[in-house]
Write a structure and sequence with these properties.
alpha/beta, about 250 residues, Rossmann fold, two-stranded antiparallel sheet
């Protein structure tokens, strides 16, 4: 029987309706039984029922208080993670469970500081930024088996820049964006090489983060696909992976 992977998804500005099924397909191909939901209550109920499952956060759900441009979207998408859900998520990882966060996961739950501690890093309002969707170069930067044999590659994505990382994370890949404008057409600083993929230990559990993955095309890029599947196996603590990398970094 396959191990379950539960995906919490949904939010504005990203095509989660097509990208989340693509992610589920990648996880299915890696041996997981993947299910997705827009509802945190469903997500945490699944985790409570199957504590050995892999928790996957691929969503853009945050308070939306930082700028009035978010005002038209607050009624539908502004979000504060309930205390009960915080307890389930934190307990899942600290007791030995696995967590995989993708792309916008680092922006989620911005009024809960523990989220960045669990994931290994988070968006920092007033400091973090990203250029508009465009050509991105990605390169492995660690000797971990998780990136063994993985080539440098180029894809279309967003590079989240100047994230606040926790001490002790293992940065596996860096990325650099070619564009220096944001989604509003405003000039932004060049990103330089940014840490975009890392692993992190929290309590007895494992968290892996991949800052790429804006859409299905990014997720299905062959090299990126292989990386995501390796991260999922590592986070879940599995002893082997069908994509050619040992589970332990």
């Amino acid at each position: 029987m396959n191990t379950s992977a539960f995906i919490f998804t949904g939010g504005i500005g990203h095509p989660f309706d097509s990208a989340a099924p693509a992610l589920a397909g990648l996880l299915e191909a890696a041996g997981f039984d993947a299910r997705q939901t827009l509802e945190m209550e469903q997500f945490t109920a699944w985790l409570e029922a199957e504590p050995e499952a892999l928790a996957v956060v691929y969503a853009l759900r945050w308070g939306m208080t930082q700028h009035e441009k978010y005002a038209p979207h607050r009624a539908q998408w502004a979000y504060t993670l309930p205390e009960s859900s915080r307890t389930v998520l934190q307990g899942h990882v600290s007791r030995g469970g696995g967590l995989l966060g993708l792309h916008t996961a680092s922006i989620c739950f911005d009024d809960w500081p523990a989220w960045g501690e669990i994931l290994g890093g988070a968006w920092e309002w007033g400091r973090s930024y990203h250029p508009a969707l465009g050509s991105v170069q990605v390169r492995p930067r660690h000797e971990s088996p998780l990136v063994e044999g993985l080539p440098d590659f180029t894809l279309t994505d967003e590079v989240y820049t100047d994230l606040a990382l926790q001490p002790g994370v293992t940065v596996l890949c860096e990325a650099e964006a070619s564009l220096t404008i944001n989604v509003m057409g405003e000039a932004v600083a060049p990103t330089g090489w940014q840490p975009v993929v890392w692993t992190h230990r929290y309590g007895r559990g494992r968290a892996a983060y991949d800052g790429l993955g804006h859409d299905a095309a990014s997720l299905e890029h062959p090299a990126h696909q292989r990386l995501i599947q390796r991260l999922a196996h590592w986070a879940h603590g599995q002893p082997a992976t069908p994509v050619g990398a040992p589970a332990d970094a």
